[in-house]
Amino acid sequence: MALDRKIATIDLTTGRIDIEPIPIEWRKQFIGGRGLDAFLLYRNTPKGCDPLGPDNAAIVSAGLLVGTMASASARTHVMAKSPLTGLTGSANMGGFFGPEMRWAGFDHLVIKGKAEKPVYLYIHNGRIEIRDASNLWGLGVYETQARIRKELGDEETQVLCIGPAGENLVRFACVMTGRKNAAGRTGMGAVLGSKNLKAIACRGTMDLAIKHPVEALEYNKEIIQQVISTKVSQIMQRWGTGFIFGVTNTTGLVRTRNFQYNQLPNSEDIEAENLDKYSIGVDGCFGCQVHCRHRYIIQEGPYAGTYAQGPEYTSQGAFGTEVGCRSMNTILTANHLVNDYGMDTLETGSMIAWAMECYEKGLLKDADTDGLPLEWGKDDVVLEMVRRIAFRENIGDVLAEGPRGAANKIGPESWKYLIHVKGMSNLHSDERATPSLALNIAVSSRGADHLRGRPAIDLYNLPMKVLDKVYRNPDGYDGPLTNNYSEYEGKARMVMWQELNYMAVDCLGVCKYHTVFLSPNHPTFGEFSKLIQLNTGLEMSPKEIWDIANRCYTIERLFNLREGMTRADDWLPDRYFDEPTKLGLPVARGKCIDREKFKAMIDEYYRLHEWDENGVPTPELLERLGIADLTADKA
Amino acid sequence: MSKKIYVVDPERCTGCRLCEIICSVKHVGVSNPAKSAIHIIKWDEEGFYLPMHCQHCEDAPCMAICPKKAISRDETLDRVVIDYDLCIGCKLCVSACPFGAMGYDPDRKKVFKCDLCDGDPQCVRFCDMKAVDYVEVSRHSLQRMRESSERYAEVMRKHGGG
User: Fold this and answer.
1) Is A341 part of any domain?
2) What is the reported pTM?
3) CB under 8 Å to A313, separation ≥6 — which residues?
4) Which has fewest Cβ within 10 Å: A141, A266, A381, A595?
């Protein structure tokens, strides 16, 4: 059944593979997926290890409900110490790899050491083989998967892999499966590259037993209806996340020309509606009826005729507003390139936008760029920069080091133009008018990022009774909440709640579009409890799941503290406080974050998490969560 | 009542494969595409997906090859069914099916195929896109005719036909 999947520890240096059951105690403490990965990462990496050295552990997992009668239970999670931030590295992706890994018998792979030459893992019905990948090294993501399927003679094989960016140790290289599914953030692809691990192929035909099949099937139907009956899902079914762009750009919540503006005027071409010209149909991850991405064909330019998938909202920023480009064809082309090279779309676009601002300010000269003019809105320059970063050519080699590494090379003046937290760039959202969203990126355990704790529904100005229902459960919170997104009060709770909610879905391996992210009416702790019970037989109350998520999130915090982060890292770039927004609707124009109020927000956020004023979890909290000995062992 | 047939529309299929595990959970209580009577065959290089399953042939090769007459047609639901009391598990039908629609479950030691869930196919019930559907045959054909004549109608409208 869903509880009988194994954990494998694979040492690529020695070739030794150990396969063990997952103790039921771990399920009760960490559930699985990202939560259990966080615990495994803490235990399996020595303090201060080099993220690109053999001591780092790359952990690949499928959450507890992956492949079951839980809608959109498709997610694969990848974790390691991040070569981008030096802290928690964590990213998850959809597609079909996670379910296949479970049908092949495994939930978690802990990969250590470094292979002597390029290899890939082949996992098949309980067995794991280390195979030669010399002939795959250098190939793009699409071709790698096709070649492995051919070599194994099985088209149903699911493959996760790295592209040239991962091989070249680009610090924001990602792990990919399928055409577009990316474990995108924090440079997990570079960690695999550093281990000479090109890919993991899975094929399984082992039963994943469902504890109460009849009831689980019916409940799945209910959950699907709950999700697809919301307006936001219906729009997602048609347009994907790109639909968000119209309203955020109009309002003035979109960072433009790096961070100079908060809106890109005359950008109709990059509205989601224009995808129709390129789309040949929508595409769903495993078991998902939201099918939020397009299968598309690039129409113009050197890549015309190429079939790719996506794009996400984030790519409209990365290769649109941030770099001042206004072409859907460019966005779709760049999206294809980053996917095939295996590189984080957000980080790539952000690095290019920052380099453009450095160029504008004279901090980068033509001599530094081999004559390439890094000017705003130059589509061909953007595409060329994507390639240079992946292959580390001249200026691309500098940017491939990520925000901190690149800024160290370009010089002290360049630091002030970086839009990053903890060494990871932010997506293209501009949070100066939205304190709750600003808090989310400042405190997230993996650096600037929306998918750790963004209370996106705060933007809807919902009735209080709706917010009360979401944010006061399941632990009976009775502190302040506010439904005006310009406010600072009550927002710390929203962020903290979202962090634990997202941790819970990441433990289960369910997509965030199937929980309270873009709609307040989507499943959350109550539904999770029933899904777990029907599919696995484990009894966990909503409050117990909340406590588990809290335990797992606290471990990520402990890992970050162990690796040297301090309260000062939970903070935003100065531009958020010093440069008011220039464009947009009145609600977003002339706004910036208030330093004092923001500091108070972080204090409140720490209090809610039961962390002290320095952001360190209190001994009482660790005792209550049963993880006091975790730090004691490894101190 | 007009009889229903099972039809697929690959243009609607998103490739999510929910139908595969719905089928295996419904029939054997496990999530396992290898135990599913429906499969989404994918051309991942092109983004083309096609649901494949038993066609419930009139002159079914599985039926013809079966030495024990364990496979027969059930005319009330217009389907091909297996009588497990007669089946000896020889698996000749697995080889005979030109569509690969006869499966074999090595754990339960049984051949299996689509049984249309006795008239309420669960894959159809769960497919929000209606890439698979179970519809009255005359309606289906007319619907397709209407869709395919849309272009003709468009031309006539534009050029002032009639």
Assistant:
1) yes
2) 0.97
3) A240, A241, A242, A243, A244, A245
4) A266
Could you read off the pLDDT of A345-394 as tens digits, one per residue? 999 999 999 999 999 999 999 999 999 999 999 999 999 999 999 999 99
Q: Report yes or no: A217 at the B interface, CB cutoff 8 Å.
A: yes
| pLDDT of res. A1 | 64
Q: Which tens digit of pLDDT belongs to each residue from A579-598?
A: 999 999 999 999 999 999 99
Query: How confident is the model over A529-558, as a mean pLDDT?
Result: 98
Amino acid identity of residue A146, one-letter, is A
Instruction: Answer yes or no: do B16 and A307 touch at CB < 8 A.
Output: no
Distance between CA atoms of A90 and A107, rounded to whole angstroms? 16
Q: Which of A75, A147, A177, A217 to mutate to test the interface with B (most CBs of B within 10 A)?
A: A217
| Torsion region of A274: left, alpha or beta (phi above 0 gives left; psi -120 to 50 gives alpha) | alpha
Beta bridge partners, A295, equal A281, A309
Give bridge partners of residue B59 from the DSSP assignment: none
How far apart, in whole angstroms, are the C-alpha atoms of residue A601 and residue A588? 20
A420 and A456 in one domain?
Answer: no
Name the DSSP letter for residue A410. H
User: Are A439 and A398 contained in the same domain?
Assistant: no
Domain boundary among A405, A425, A445: A425
The answer to the question of residue A213 being in a domain is: no
Residues A254 and A152 in one domain: no
In a shared domain, residues A292 and A198: no
Token pair belonging to A71: 């809608």
Structural domain boundaries enclosing A81: 6-203
A492 vs B66: CA distance, rounded Å: 68
In which residue are the tokens 């630091």 written? Answer: A415
Partners of A175 in the β-ladder: A183
CB nearest A210 (choices: B12, B16, B31): B31
**CB-count burial class (<10 Å; 0-12, 13-18, 19+) for A635:** exposed
Same domain assignment for residues A323 and A394: yes
For residues B83 and B71, give the distance between their C-alpha atoms in angstroms, rounded to a whole number: 6
Distances (CA, A) of B31 to A95, A177, A220, A221, B65: 17, 21, 13, 15, 30
Contact criterion met (CB < 8 Å) for A287 and B17: yes
Chain A residues inside the 8 Å CB shell of B129: 289, 291
For residue A634, the SS3 value is helix
Quick one: A157 and A114 in the same domain?
Answer: yes
Tell me if B21 and A69 make a contact (CB, 8 A cut-off).
yes
> Do residue A302 and residue A191 come from a single domain?
no
Decide: A57 and A80 in contact? Cβ < 8 Å.
yes
Alpha-carbon distance values, A604 to A496, A597, A615 (Å) = 10, 10, 11
Q: Tell me how long chain A is.
A: 635
Pair A450, A430: CB distance under 8 Å = no
- Show the CA angle centred on residue A70, arms to residues A64 and A74, nearest 5°: 65
Residues A524 and A605 in one domain: yes
Q: Are B138 and B21 in contact (CB under 8 A)?
A: no
Q: Do A291 and B16 touch (CB under 8 A)?
A: yes
Residue range A392-435, pLDDT digits in tens: 999 999 999 999 999 999 999 999 999 999 999 999 999 999 99
Q: How far apart are CA B38 and CA B23, in angstroms?
A: 7
Tell me whether A307 touches chain B (CB under 8 Å): yes
Going along chain B from its start, the domains and CATH numbers come out as 1-53+114-136 (3.30.70.20), 56-110 (3.30.70.20)
